[in-house]
Each structure stands twice: as structure tokens, then as C-alpha cells.
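Lab notebook: predicted structure, single chain.

Context: the supervisor wants predicted structures on file for every construct in the current expression panel, including those that have not yet been purified. This is the next one on the list. No modifications to the sequence; it matches the entry in the shared construct table.
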Amino acid sequence: MAGLTRIKALPYRIVTKLAGDAISLFARILTAPRAIWSGSEPRPGPRVYYSNHTSNADFVLIWTVLPPVLRSRTRPVAALDYWLASPLRAFAGRDVFRAVLIDRRPEARTEDPVTQMVTALDAGSALILFPEGRRNTSEAPLLPFKSGLFHLARQRPGVDLIPVWISNLNHVMPRGQVIPVSLICTVTFGAPIRIAPDEAKERFLTRAAAALAELGAAR
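Prediction complete. Output recorded below exactly as produced.
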């Protein structure tokens, strides 16, 4: 019975793989993304890529520039209400990218968001996280970080937190636009940080944001 189940599931796994490859190819054609590993290396295993957030396509670009062996084990942390809003989005977010879907409505949650992320890390996955919590449409380089990154780091202090700066993607898909504009984008992976023992929340978040902002200032 188990063998039959695996056989029946195989075609769908092929479909999701082909869909992921197609999305990645489209992202490469549109943005010609260049990955810059500055202070870190593409390694397998649990880690958290935390990035600036200017476009709904941010995690797709990070996911695309990762080596295939890492891409298959890397899951974005994304809003449940956005990615389950339509069957197509649900297929992409839940099945293709295997996103850790977070319910942004505290009163409606059935799972704790940090627990969801810790569970994914403990299963061997890497995560793509946007600590700003929403797209930054302001003139500031970064919005204030939400507390999720801190609580995740406290739960798993031995996991590397890799700052990732995305350049130009907000110009490829400006807010409110339907047709993307072809531009070259860069994705810069910085040196990993970890939370220090007994480090206070505000101090840690300030340090994490500074590490990310420094990558942006250097581009």
C-alpha cells in the first residue's frame, strides 16, 4: 500500500518540480540575477536567510539563485492569507515552494509562528525570512524589524542567520504594476550572525538590521 501511494504521488512531485524550474527560469530571464556570497558560503543544513523586502517576488529571487541542492531544502516564510487566496497561489506557495505559511491574524491562529519555523529548521530545512514583516515602500533602507527573528534565534541559537540584500527587484515589479520591467538584480549574502547569550531583544534586532543595511550600503 505504501509503495502504491508513492507511485501515485510521483507525477505530482514531477509537476511541482517542473513548475518550480519554470518559475526559476522566468526569474532568471527577467532579472539576470547575480548571487554574491560575501562572508558566507552556500552550505546545506538548517539556516535562516533574512532579507530586505520590497517586492512579492523577493523570496523567489533568493530561492532562484541558490544552488539546486540547497533550493530543494529551502522554504520561504510567507503570509497564509496571501498565498492561499487563490488556487494558483496555493499551488505555488504551498506545493511548489513548500512555504511555511504564517497566519497574520493572531485571533485566528491554530499554530504558533515561531514553532512552525523551528519545526522546519529541525527537519533540516533552511528558511527565507523577511523581518520587516511587510513590503518596504518608504524611502528608508529598512523598516523596523518585527520580533520573530529574535524569538527564532532564541529558540535555535546555534543556527546561522545570513543577511541577504536584494538590489533592484522593486524596480522590476513596482507596487501596483502588472507588467514587470526587465532589470539586472543582485542578491548579496553576507556573513552569518548568531544571537549572543542573554542578548536583549532590541540589541539583537538592531545588530541584525545593521548587518543587513551594511550589505545594502555596499551595493
